[in-house]
Protein 1
Amino acid sequence: MRKIAIPPVIFLVALLFLDCASQGAYNLPVRRQKRVLTGLENFLARDAANYRGKKIALVTNHSGVDYNLSKNIDLLRAAGMEIVLAFAPEHGLYGHENDYDNRLYRVDERLNVVVYNLHHLSMEMLRFLLGPSEAVIFDIQDMGMRCYTYVSSLKQVMDALEGTAIELIVLDRPNPLGFLGIDGAYLQDGFWSRHISAFPSTFIYNLTLGEAARYYGATHVSNVRLRVVPLANYRRDLLFNETMLPWVPPSPNLPTYESAIVYSAVVMLEGVNLSVGRGTTKPFEYIGAPWIEPRELARLLSGLGLPNFRFRPVYFSPTFSKYAGMRCGGVHIFYMGGAFSPMEVSYKIISAIKAAYPKFRWDYRGGRYHVDFLAGTDLFRENMDAGRPFSEFAARIAEGQRRFDRLRKKHLLY
């Protein structure tokens, strides 16, 4: 059979195309650098021998993997540690639960470990269960937002360990939103909730979980034996795709890094009567409702002057969550790159929809507005109801941001 010679230029172009395609995130540039090493990888390489034979409680989920996607529990056991218990945050050990798992615990036969659900444990029960452990290892991929409940799980574990002799080892991972800085209101009195608004910070806090542990341990709890195993080759301004680490969806509705970035800008819409695309193939990238005409909404949002985003009119039918089984009109939100203020984007989008659609409603639950707990304040909603611009809201929360920033800077690792 005659062999066909491929011209060198065509071959090089093909290689370039494959390299670009492998990056996946077409709106996210990649600055070439050394691959980031996670706290898990650094712990196994440098410190694991010191914990051989020790009884370990592991707080983790499906995101607790190394670069090769090997699970932390398997790696820790291979290094000689005895995993006596595991604790899972929201979405469970395997990250497939869309709502809170209602079971207090279950036996995972494949991993041969009892897994407790942190969301159903009282402080007294958690402290009791951790008692026999010689160390607690916390290894979860966070999102860098106060309402994303994994940082509340860290706080819960630190509160339980306060005053005990048990060491807490936090294996650090990148903050996917570190390039955004800090944003939103500092958590105000009266707007605490156990999971979505428990951590004392601004809405976007620009800390890795390791840094969050250092900050919380220094400012809100005393006598926690904390050790943070840091990342290597990491910078705060790196986009997640620049870390060269695999994107393991930290929760079911954040399948891609782009969806996670858009999530930061639209999560406040969970506090109103719009679908945010849960139950579709584009969670948080689709927003809408049965009473919205797509082209009209796309024109409205395109006129808001949000340069980091584009809006395409769509119809979608959620399979669960708000408006399940109903046809919704709305938009597909495209992130076009660059830094932005998630609070400004959400404020302007909600304000525009509120003014344009008479059927708009705030989500009112149990005598409280859900958006107030997401925002950590009622100023977000009240300013909007009064017709005030985002600049006035930003001015009212600025001092709280400055106070938090002064504190957080003392505990930065990167």
Protein 2
Amino acid sequence: MDNLLNKCGNFFNILNVGLYRSTLDGKFIEVNPALVKISGLESAEELLKHNVIEIYRNPENRKEIVEKIKKEGSITLYSFPARNFKGENILTNVSVIFDKGGNGVEPHLDGVVQDITELEESKDKLSEIQERYQDFIRDTNLAIFISTPGPVGKFIEANDAAIKMFGADSREDLLNRKPSDLYADPEARGMASDELVKSGFIRNKEIELLNYKGKKIWVVVSAILKKTDQGSLFYGTFFDITERKLIEEKLRASEIVLKKSQEVSMVGSWTLNTLTGKIRWSDEVFHIFGVEIQENDLDFEYFMKFVHRDDLEKINDELENISKGMIPDPFEYRIVLQDKSIRNIYAVSYGESSADGKLQTLSGIVQDITDRKRVELDLLEKINELERINSLMVNRELKMIELKEEIRKLREEKL
């Protein structure tokens, strides 16, 4: 008769699981390298000196397996806590076939052992991550949603902040409504959807909404396109910038009101004279940049020394556009404060031209969005971690299916 390893060599090479043959009382007869590794020993010769029962943390598990095998002829994917010969606790599952012997062969057990410690730890970690993720989703004031693509769309999921922002009465109420009904401009939803489908993401897109209770709000939306079992879905966030938009509308109307509003919302205003290169900051800009308030106009170089070196090219590109009379679109950049901390800034610009049509004065606002960026990055990391753990779980489940199929084939051979 071919020995066990010759018969199961292919099986071992594919799944890298432990294979063994033992007597009914547990003495190893034959083992493969994978089982030696699981046992924590250096060689098959060492392992053959031991008894199967030595790896059971609870000897009663071994008795239970043997009794079940004697009664049913086999056992499949029986999980039990084990301890290898290095003294390390591990989790394993075992599948065993009882061979009654004959023709000079003593009755024996043929088994397959798999170390599932990592799998079980992954399950625990996944559960922990899911719990933290749910807490994060529930407690954040950032509106988080999942919806289908298209000009109309359908909400699949949303957190409490989204339900409140959109003016829905409950989660069920929101899921029964159309995302397109939120847009003040009926065509804006379709345009945003087309952009997201084409590029795979949108970032910091300002949109005017009219929530389900008729309240006008301004939001910044960031979203990504994900392919799932349910098809392509949008995963995104809405950040309420209504307060900032109100401040923008009052930018030229009242310096006093503006100053107070800026202190509350961390929004500062600035004015650049494109002819002289001089720039004037409101008090809040100085606060955002972490420096003392100065009364005199500043040289543009003073601003540039705060710009993160990786964003200097972006700023220079915007200056090039300004020199051509173009007003920059809203954009983000980073600054480095005197204490070396990094802040994320969102900038919006407005232009005023001279009588001959040349851009003379550029004004605008800057907002410190560091906290919002941190929340968005944290959310993305949690989504990626969940996807990695889910991928591991799927791969493990596929291997378990392969294992069951090979065990079935082994049993058919014995019969």
Protein 3
Amino acid sequence: MDFRERTKITLGKLHKLLNTNFDRAFGMDISDSSVEIAELSKLFRFSIENYGRIELAPGTIKEGIILDEKALAEKVKTLLQDMKPRKVSTNKVILSLPQARVLTHHFVLSTTLRGDALRLLVQKEIVKILPITPARMYWDIRSRQLPGGQTSVMFVGVQRDVVETYVRVCNSIGLSVVSLGLEPLSISRLMLSAGPAITAIVDIGNNVTNISLVRGNDELDMAVTVEIAGRAMTQAIAQGLNIDEAQAEAKKIAVGTGGSDETFFLVEPVIKKIGIEVSKTIAYYEETFKEPVTSLLVVGGASAMSGVKEKLGEVVGKPASGAIHFNNFENLSSLNKKEGGGDISMLYTSVIGLAMLGASNEFEDVNLLKQMGAAKLNYINRSELFGAGYLSKLTAIRIFLNSRLMLAVSLTLC
């Protein structure tokens, strides 16, 4: 082996080393009304390094679609500059996908194909089912072999322009997006334990309820969306009490649905309808996978009302929990004390799950970025990081030098 070949091998190893993710990646959860950020570290247990939250002006985002990229970028930059108790240690971010824009479908194929061959088959099948072609989406699958030569396939996709808009906003302020996370997996990562148990996560939002079947705490087997949720509860109260929806929403939040309160009887039929949909989903899952679903984890805004999880558990016939159990954490309980009391940790549930992915390599997630071309992914000017205001000078220098060294090695290997 001559000197040139040895040099090329050495540079190849260096290139691979430089591509290793030494930095933690912080999590960022963007909804229609707010942005939450959290960065974690892990030695033996997870620990919060920094966190922050900022509200968005109405009209910035609507149903997961960014309407004002500049306004969102400025809000995120402001939040990063105001992080507590210290600045973030990296410009790498794991971003949540807007749940309202995520297309999912579960189906069973009579095949034992794997890898690219399975993906090609899925691509042919999915065009028969979804209203948008895979060519216009960034998509991924999770598969599991079933008895009898069949394969369970969980398809997850988001329109390309939606993903590219979120990445573009991040890149505009110097953030490098390393992964796009799913909300059900973020929740399960934080609130469930690893193992073989299968849990149905029932996320009751305003317009839809998302039902996700999760194995352990990081494997999504199936997801279903039903169009009955918190707003239907509000409408039931409004009709029953002959008041407008704004008054009904206030009453729902203030009074709840517990005990003998009149609102319980108005909302109960809606809860039962959600429970019936959950039961159907679980029955299909258990028949397909030949494995039992052990329990329900009830989350989302409407789940905060007393009586909701108990009624769902009763209808479905499974134990239901709505309590947050922060698994494997060292200092998460101190988050509320830092903010002067109150259970604000509820606001950070999803983003902490994202940050767990960035702080440890022990979890897996669906990642749609691998389909995005280099021209659209993380096109940032790293020299501008010095004036960004949310990184320490040392961190900005390290990121800048690392990018230059990677470029030099890449050009040498060409």
